Amino acid sequence: MIDRETFTELMSGVCAPVTVVTATTADGRPHGSTVSSFASLSLDPPLVSFALDRASGLLAHLQPGDRVGVNILGAHQQELASAFARRRQGPGSKFDGVSWTVRAGLPYLPESAGWTAGRVERHVDGGDHVLLLVCLEEAESTSAAPLIYARRIFGTHAPLAVAS
């Protein structure tokens, strides 16, 4: 088996979408976290997946049957990605000072490159993470350039130049 450092270095070269996954607590408070493991899983039914660290505070609010929102960040939203990636210490919320609204009963970050919402179908054990399978109920995409993460830096997608 490879060691942690080798694995981390290998995976840093894999481009990943940057999303902020959101939920609403039972008392109506917004909860969210940056997630870069978002992926499509199935067309029929429309399923996506993402992974959360077992220590994530968001995980407790995303049990099977719970609703979840996924804000697919645009290239102009790197500050949001960083803000939602930090573990919150002390009072307050990651949403403090952030422009957000409620959409379909879930925290929504305007100006995202895409947005979707659905229900958590199930959890799958993934070592130090839990893989969540989500059946989508709503979705919207835009033409905004997506935010991606690779080699420990943010970037975006650009078409390759055609060689002549």
TrEMBL record:
Keywords: Oxidoreductase. InterPro entries: Flavin_Rdtase-like_dom, NADH-dep_flavin_reductase, Split_barrel_FMN-bd. GO terms for molecular function: FMN binding; riboflavin reductase (NADPH) activity. Residues 11-156 form the Flavin reductase like domain. The keyword Oxidoreductase applies. Signal peptide: none annotated. Belongs to the non-flavoprotein flavin reductase family. This is FMN-binding flavin reductase domain protein. It comes from Streptomyces iranensis.
